[in-house]
Specification:
11% strand; Outer membrane efflux proteins (OEP); elongated; disordered N terminus
Length: 464
């Protein structure tokens, strides 16, 4: 039925290398999803940047220390690790599905007959029974039901493993973004502090000009307002720095404290990403791999549910020692044993088997739709991040040119004002534009790093 639904192989090779649980002749690129996920042509021979360790992407030594600490201490990472250990325990249990069940027990029974049950005739008697009994049962996996359940549990474990990788990738991306944002705020803070110092000096100069009759009170108040505006912006920046440092501390699972850091100009963030082959690179994404394993799990559970329609063949054995006298308990005459081979075919069971099968078929279809959604979402994220990162370099260059132009305009306005050729309003306008441009350059540089982090994460990087 599904032979015409699935096309191509998106991640089959990865899954097969990880564990041989993929159904035969089963492909995992749903219909409607092609390799043209990113709205661009990518070189087929390039390596994927997602395969590069985060240490090679984020070269800031302080950031590397924070990421290493977060991957060890972060609470979300620890929760994911506990979930993985739980899934591993279930996996070990599933591997024992072929082993017979075995139990052993020792019992002592003392019984007394009822005289009234025999019409009130006779005498009361007592009987003792001592026994040690061992029981074993083994279901023969004729229809591969047990094998399907084992493969389903293996897929569930691997899906949990991918979920842990996704948590690690998210922690790395979130921490790196917060760190770079902190550097951006430091740069903006430096610009504002310089601006405040400059405007305060400009305010003093204007006050002297007013006293000399060369400027008006309006000019003084306008520049005074600019000083207050910059000081207010500095308070906002300081508040953001404080909150961001606390956010990083939470990621590190530490109490709030100041964060040691470098500066924005010292960063050597990668200028280019090798995106790799379109669909092949998605093998690195934990969410896509998890969707594949979830589909494997649903597929195998459907097979196991289908096998419930067929008869089950069970071998049972029971044996031990049984005696009415403790003295003869451990003798050859006390040994008993029996072996039963049973074949059971379900006929009427309140429709439970069919309901279970139909539910699993629906779950399999849901898993397939979720896989398709994961692939399309991954393609969108990579496409968006790739485009934004590529375009941001030019954006930074343009913003830098804009900043330099406003800086020159401010210098020229001051010279013209000193010569009496322009009024103070032109100086104020030029000064405001200069400050906004300098702040925008810092934001543009951070945005480029943010897009780079998003692209690295979208390609499946961060967990290696």
């Amino acid at each position: 039925m599904y032979r015409n639904i699935y096309k191509g192989i998106a991640v089959a090779s990865m899954v097969l290398l990880t564990a041989c649980i993929m159904p035969k002749k089963q492909d995992y690129m749903p219909e409607g999803v092609s390799e043209k996920l990113f709205r661009t042509e990518l070189p087929a021979d390039s390596l994927s940047s997602a395969a590069v360790s985060w240490r090679d992407i984020f070269t800031d030594l302080l950031l590397q220390q924070y990421i290493g600490k977060a991957l060890t201490n972060n609470l979300d990472v620890k929760v994911a690790l506990q979930s993985l250990q739980s899934a591993q325990a279930y996996l070990k249990q599933s591997k024992a599905v072929y082993v017979p069940t075995l139990s052993i027990g020792a019992n002592y029974t003392r019984s007394t007959n009822s005289i009234n049950a025999m019409g009130g005739v006779g005498e009361r008697s007592h009987a003792n029974l001592w026994d040690i009994t061992g029981s074993a049962s083994w279901e023969v996996d004729i229809w591969n039901k047990l094998s399907a359940q084992n493969r389903a549990q293996t897929a569930s474990y691997l899906a949990t493993l991918q979920a842990q990788k996704a948590v690690q990738s998210e922690v790395v991306a979130t921490l790196a973004t917060a760190y770079y944002q902190l550097l951006m705020l430091d740069e903006q803070k430096r610009v504002l502090e310089q601006t405040i110092d400059f405007r305060q000096k400009s305010l003093q100069t204007t006050q002297h000009l007013k006293e000399a009759g060369s400027a008006t009170e309006v000019a003084v108040k306008q520049i005074e307002a600019l000083v207050y505006n910059a000081q207010a912006q500095l308070i906002t920046i300081n508040n953001s720095v404080w909150a961001l440092e606390n956010t990083i501390c939470v990621l590190l699972a530490e109490e709030p404290h100041s964060i040691e850091r470098s500066n924005l100009s010292a960063q050597q963030f990668p200028t280019d990403f090798k995106q790799g082959y379109p669909v092949k690179l998605l093998e690195n994404r934990p969410d896509v791999a998890r969707a594949v394993f979830n589909f494997c799990n649903a597929f195998e559970l459907t097979n196991a549910a289908r096998a419930n329609f067929y008869p089950s063949f069970t071998l049972s054995a029971r044996g031990g020692l049984s005696s009415t006298d403790l003295d003869t308990w451990f003798s050859a005459k006390s040994i008993f044993a029996n072996l039963v081979a049973g074949l059971a075919q379900p006929i009427l069971n309140k429709r439970q088997i069919r309901t279970q099968y139909e539910v699993q078929r629906a779950n399999q279809e849901i898993a397939l739709l979720n896989l398709k959604k994961a692939l399309l979402s991954a393609g969108k994220e990579v496409s968006d991040a790739m485009h934004n990162f590529s375009a941001q370099e030019e954006y930074v260059q343009l913003k830098t040119k804009e900043m330099k132009a406003y800086q020159q305009a401010t210098d020229f306005s001051k010279q013209l004002f000193d010569s009496g050729m322009v009024n103070y309003l032109e100086i104020i306008t030029a000064e405001v534009n200069r400050l906004n441009a300098e702040l925008s350059v810092a934001e543009a540089q951070f945005a480029r790093m943010q897009y780079g982090i998003s692209l690295y994460k979208a390609l499946g990087g961060g967990w290696r």
